[in-house]
UniProtKB/TrEMBL annotation:
Protein name: Patatin
Any Pfam family the entry gives: Patatin
Region annotated Disordered, chain positions: 390-427
Leader peptide range in chain numbering: none
Organism of provenance: Olea europaea subsp. europaea
Function comment: Lipolytic acyl hydrolase (LAH).
């Protein structure tokens, strides 16, 4: 394929279908940067006159990977550190992590963290602080992560996990989240990934599910049957780590296509993304695949790295300030975490990972060591999050227009949040 052929095909596509020009721009940027390494051509698209003169703002996305080698502890510890930095820099001791993000996506244990931090409590605030979420992950590690079995590193979706999640979330549903939440799983009945979305739950019948069920589905390695609140739809789910180990790209796609809630977001330059990994598997297993479980771990790490590579390339020169990836190098080793004492030691391991200068994947070029430690990167991105918050206080134009219960039931014209058609329940 050549650049000329690519441009011609785009023009033919535009003439045959009424495609939004902003979508064409996004496609062009990703295609040219990923395949050819070209810089963005401003002649490809003329900005819509309705958004051309709107003051620039950034949509803030938090994305959390599935369990990794720390079973969610690294991501939880990263959030505690980031929230502490936000409180220190703003001088507000009550600053909450969700106040500084517009979208929260999480897969596997990351999905549980997303639910804990985003679901509304009795006082109207998030049910859990970052400290409480970290404590929950550490104390309940054995209930949501059991001994290895089959080709999986851990057995997820146990009855113990179900009881714990029901106790935490009760009857709360996707509609009870404070911010747009995205949590994936894999639907065995359709053979396709599903992304549970607050926007879809508010807009359409059959898309609202209980948070306990969603969180159980995203950590499950055996079939979990879920029905929507109204009973119209059902899925047969297995874990989000299988479907989408790193949900960053899905979260970006959701924002770029959701013009009702994010009307002025034109491209990746209008995004501020924090992507949290949970530690890569021991590098020692990479030289020799000794078991199916080792293969699955490597596959999961590779899938997360590929998402990181593609997103980094899409951001281009802006990735230094607009995109931050926190990941831990392989320092855990092959030893499995099987008891509470060892699970608590994950806190120490996570601290070591935060002090690392982690490795960054470069497409076709292997990996390189980055200049800043994970803690330093969180400090920098904390400053950027605060800048955007201060900008919004002075702006008369809303950057985000969140849907609320009782809003328009009409589906978005370009929704990309549900990646498979949920199976209808027979009457």
């Amino acid at each position: 394929m050549t650049a000329a052929v690519s441009t011609t095909s785009m023009l033919e596509f535009e003439s045959n279908m009424d495609v939004d020009k902003l979508t064409l721009e996004i496609f062009s940027i990703l295609e040219n940067k990923f395949l050819f390494g070209y810089e963005r051509d401003p002649k490809l698209v003329t900005p819509s006159p309705t958004v051309r003169n709107v003051p620039a703002g950034k949509i803030r996305i938090l994305s959390i990977d599935a369990g990794g080698s720390t079973d969610g502890v690294l991501a939880a510890k990263s959030l505690v550190h980031l929230e502490s930095a936000l409180r220190r820099k703003t001088g507000n001791p009550n600053a909450c992590i969700t106040d500084f993000f517009d979208v929260v996506a999480g897969s596997g244990v990351g999905g549980i963290l997303a639910g804990l931090l985003s679901t509304r409590g009795n006082d109207g605030e998030p049910k859990f602080s970052t400290e409480q979420a970290l404590k929950f992950i550490v104390e309940n590690g054995r209930k949501i992560c059991q001994k290895p079995a089959g080709v999986f590193q851990r057995v997820f979706g146990s009855s113990k996990a179900e009881k714990v999640l029901k106790k935490v979330f009760g009857e709360l549903t996707l509609k009870d989240t404070l911010k747009p939440v995205l949590i994936p799983c894999h639907d065995l009945s359709t053979g396709a990934p599903v992304l549970f979305s607050r926007a879809d739950a508010l807009e359409m019948d059959g898309y609202d599910f209980k948070m306990a069920g969603i969180c159980g589905a995203t950590i499950a390695n055996k079939a979990v049957h879920l029905k929507s609140i109204d009973g119209r739809r059902k899925i047969v789910a297995v874990g989000g780590g299988v479907a989408m180990n790193n949900p960053t790209a899905a979260a970006i796609t959701h924002v770029l296509n959701n013009k009702q809630e994010f009307p002025f977001c034109k491209g990746v330059e209008d995004l501020l993304v924090v992507s949290l990994g949970n530690g890569e598997s021991d590098a020692g297993v990479r030289s020799t695949i000794s078991s199916p479980a080792a293969f699955v771990r490597i596959a999961g790490d590779g899938a997360a790295d590929m998402v990181d590579q593609a997103v980094s390339m899409a951001f281009g020169e802006a990735r230094g300030n607009n995109y931050v990836r926190i990941q831990g190098n392989a320092i855990v080793g092959k030893k499995q975490i099987t008891n509470n004492k060892e699970n608590r030691n994950m806190l120490k391991i996570a601290e070591e990972m935060l002090a690392q200068k982690n490795v960054e994947s470069v497409l076709f070029s292997g990996k390189k060591l980055v200049e800043k430690t994970n803690k330093e990167k969180l400090e920098v991105i904390g400053g950027e999050l605060i800048k955007e918050e201060e900008r919004r206080k002075k702006s008369t134009v809303p950057t985000v227009v969140l849907k609320v219960q009782g809003g328009s039931p009409s589906p978005r014209s370009s929704s990309a949040t549900t990646l498979s058609t949920l199976s209808s329940v027979s009457a």
